[in-house]
Amino acid sequence: MQTMTGNSFRLDMDRRLRRNRKSAAIRSLVRETRLHPSDFVAPLFVLEGVNRKEEVASMPGVYRMTIDHLIREATELFQLGVPAVDLFAVVPSEKKNSFGSEACEQGNLICQAVEALKKEIPELCVMVDVALDPFTDHGHDGIVDQNGEVLNDETVAVLAEMSVCAAQAGADIIAPSDMMDGRISYIRQYLDQADYRNVGILSYAAKYASAFYGPFRDALHSAPKFGDKKTYQMDPGNVREALVECALDEMEGADMLMIKPGLPYLDVIAKVRDQSDLPIAAYHVSGEYAMVMAAAQNGWIDGDRVMEESLLAMKRAGADFIFTYAAKEMAKGLQ
What is the pLDDT of residue 5? Predict the structure, then answer.
């Protein structure tokens, strides 16, 4: 409250919170949420061939790369303290078909990449994205019938086979991103029956049918050729449904849960954190990354600070770790 003393005013306050902000040292002591390189997973795009590296036009600083470059990139990330990568295959059009059969081929590109990474950097956590959209000629995450419907149960069977292929190659964690019903239980059973009981499952439990995925689809040439993904990915207007999805995946045997995208769904991250004790991941997706990079290149924002603030918000909302294309640059800045 204000009181008048002569010609001056005096504030009578019991609490002055600015005392805890008056220096960098004090702010550091009382900071509630911190980022560390160990909070990050780096998504990486794997390309066929040797000594090839292609920048993704819509994602400045992000590359499609052959396995030799992939090893160098993953090594640098690991040395910076980033403990995990998530692999996505850039599949040539001639290897795509309506069933995505290349996804289950022994020794395919992803399997080769996993084997190479585990050989060169055994301590690195290697995750493999499990979905059919990079492998199908129609760009959907599952098998499609003659009417254009994505078939749930038939797709789940293929995803389980794909998961075992990745496990055989040495993957530490399987990350199903397809949003088919019941796939976590089916994949868990399939892995266990194949004696891969120690391979973890990170479920994309609440993956929204978002407009933020465009640059990612450019990177993999995987945009759907018809329709959209709204019959299997979640409606952006729903949060209670996300809680049900996460609860079901936890009951089915998921070891970790993901919410995707990140910043537009901080409320979902927070609500899932309140509901579940499982580790929670947030995905700072391609569109979120691209917007920051484009604005930074135009001189409109401080890109590094905006990127760090964005990732910090996801951590503050309740995410234990974050998938981000900025993992390397952020890790450098946090050294």
Answer: 56
